[in-house]
Amino acid sequence: MKLEIKKPKNENLQTIMRRLGYKPIGHSDRGELNCVRPIAGDYPRFHAYIKEEGDQLIFNIHLDQKRPSYGNETAHSGDYDSEVVRDEVAFIQEQINKLETRF
Asked: Residue 38 in contact with residue 51, Cβ under 8 Å?
């Protein structure tokens, strides 16, 4: 699921994600910040790729149901548009809006 929202002033992207409970784990080959937020143990977990474009943050978020598997199995078990993912997007939007109103 995609979310575009205005970036709070005076906030670093990694700091924003940590405040949201996400752990930055690197960058994608497209330069997006790659972050995860476990729900219970390692999986399931929310997985977000975030990039900055001007004063906007662009999130691509999904729910990893289980660890990726290879071979004859599917490589990824992601949930992109469930109610759980929509609730997470609403949570992120609400929290970022609160950061913006602090200044």
From this structure: no
- Contacts of 100 by beta carbon, 8 Å cutoff, 6+ apart: 6, 8, 9
In this structure, what token pair is assigned to residue 19?
Answer: 């405040």
Predicted TM-score (pTM) of the model is 0.86
Taking the C-alpha atoms of residue 61 and residue 84, their distance in angstroms, rounded to an integer, is: 11
pLDDT tens across 38-82, in order?
998 889 999 999 999 999 999 999 999 887 766 555 455 789 999
**How far is 103 from 95, CA to CA, in rounded Å?**
14
DSSP result, 9-47 = TT--HHHHHHHTT-EEEEE-TTS-EEEEEESSSSSSEEE
* Residues in Cβ contact with 79 at an 8 Å cutoff, skipping those fewer than 6 apart: 62, 63, 65, 85
SS3 for 75-88 is: CCCEECCCHHHHHH
